[in-house]
Write a structure and sequence with these properties.
Helix content: 10-25%
Shape: globular
Structural class: mainly beta
Order of helices and strands: HHEEEEEEEE
Radius of gyration: 18 Å
Strand content: 25-35%
Number of helices: 2
Number of strands: 8
Strand order of the largest sheet: 1-2-3-6-5-4-7-8
Number of domains: 1
Length: 171
């Protein structure tokens, strides 16, 4: 009998834990705090609504930034050794221009980091951008990249993990 009570207590405690669609992302700067790549309270219907595991509007890989208000899309052109990261809204489709001086791309393997500069799209208000561009020799390596994209947007730090897959990879 006590085994059943103990089992039920453990089952109840585990079921009360918040579930997300991924693991939390550490801050880009160990001394700062950051939003996580996923929202702890996402429900399966929320996940289906923003389908961040598929290809983005620019053919890249989508990841969540913060509380689902923003998404990021990682694209890479191996020939140019260039990446463009797009900031998207909660629907993961619409450009969401932000005030940010730079975006930092940190790739896991091979480990390297690229500082991306704003390159506003046509019609975006001055001082904002939904497109950030950078180059690095390692981006010429044809592989599926994974890493973290971070920035400070209007004084709030954001970081989101991404991982390219065969269907989300652009050549």
């Amino acid at each position: 009998m006590w085994h059943r009570i103990g089992y039920l207590a453990i089952l109840t405690a585990v079921s009360a834990l918040p579930l997300g669609c991924g693991k939390a992302t550490p801050p880009a700067d160990p001394g700062s705090t950051s939003e996580t790549a996923t929202t702890a309270g996402d429900s399966p219907s929320d996940e289906a609504a923003h389908d961040h595991h598929g290809s983005g509007p620019h053919g890249g890989t989508i990841a969540e930034w913060g509380d689902g208000n923003y998404h990021i899309e990682f694209t890479v052109d191996h020939d140019k050794k260039e990446t463009v990261v797009y900031i998207l809204g909660g629907d993961a489709k619409t450009a969401a221009p932000v005030k940010a001086d730079k975006v930092i791309l940190s790739i896991n393997e091979p480990a390297f980091q690229v500082e991306l500069s704003p390159q506003p799209l046509e019609g975006e208000a001055e001082g904002t951008s939904s497109s950030f561009v950078g180059t690095h020799d390692n981006l010429g390596i044809v592989q599926e990249f994974a890493g973290t994209i971070s920035a400070e947007v209007d004084g709030t730090p954001f970081a989101g993990e991404f991982a390219e897959t065969a269907e989300g990879h652009v050549h």
